[in-house]
Known about the structure:
- It is a single chain.
- By secondary structure, the chain is mostly helical.
- The chain has 2 domains: about 5-185 and about 295-325, 3-Layer(aba) Sandwich (Rossmann fold); about 200-295, Tyrosyl-Transfer RNA Synthetase, CATH 1.10.240.10.
- Helices cover about 55% and strands about 5% of the residues.
- It is built from 13 helices and 5 strands.
- It has a 3-stranded parallel beta sheet with strand order 1-2-3, sandwiched between helices. The protein has a two-stranded parallel ribbon with strand order 4-5.
- Helix 3 crosses helix 12 (about 270-295).
- Tryptophan (TRP) binds near residues 7 and 144.
Amino acid sequence: MDIIFSGIQPTGNLHLGNYLGAIRNWVQLQKDKFCIFCVVDLHAITVWQAPDKLRQHTREVVAAMIASGIDSEKQIIFNQSRVSGHAELAWIFNCVSRIGWLNRMTQFKEKAGRNRENASVGLFAYPNLMAADILLYKGTQVPVGADQKQHLELTRDIAQKFNSDFGIDFFPIVEPLILGEATRVMSLRDGMSKMSKSDPSELSRVTMVDDSDLISKKIRKAKTDPNPLPHDVRSLEGRPEAQNLMAIFAALSDTKLEIVCERFGGLPFSKFKEELIDLAVAVLSPIQSEMVRLLNDPAELDRILSVGSERANALAYPTMQEIKKIVGLLSE
Length: 332
Ligand code: TRP
């Protein structure tokens, strides 16, 4: 049986990139697969987080998932720190994984920047914890953005080394699932940089709590180029803003970029933007209002996480016992 596992960081300011790149794909996947969705609060603290913000952001991500249509009864939604197996297995993987492997991780290099010596040890070991997240459930398929592919390759290396170190065929080989047209949503102000929660310009992103007026305003002000929209995908080359807006349209309407080009090719940006606004408002505003409603009931969100964590733990605990036995750690 396929086990789908994915993780999302508890960040505030969830935006269209998070929705189209992750959450919307998860909503599709749950239709015919069993999925475990984890809010990775232990990953979040690899960089210091204000405790109140961390609590709030964890709830925000859960609200976004549920408002978008993930069924918390059929699937599992929980926060990582609630299931102790994640941290336990991450430690074991710290001992399986090699410093040389982690040294090659581009995300660490980017995040640590020039001040590498001052980065937390947790940030360096981050991919080992990610491998633990997935393998604790013997996950086989992992929907992620393209930027996480390297971490999944590391997960495979860890699984294989563990299996061969202990002479056992225990962990499965994990496959990435790279889904959707707009897995990489770019800034509305600059088609060359990724849409980001930390961009100082609010106009660079549509967030999941923006109301229809804000959505319209931001799309109307989105950067364009002087030419009409192209008729085919090839002609999008060198036109990052056109590419981005059309890819967003494709993702929001579950169609292919090609079809969007065929339909809107030749139109000026202004006309296309009106269509995009209608679509974005139709898709996003019901989610936005449900999210706002859920956020007003934090006790309900906490209950969902508590139930999810118990169910996750019921799967993780026996596996962790087996792992301890394999490694030679005495336990119950
Ligand atoms: N590193 C992932 C990201 O930043 C989040 C993540 C943590 C994750 N654990 C995971 C994703 C396990 C997939 C599976 O996007």
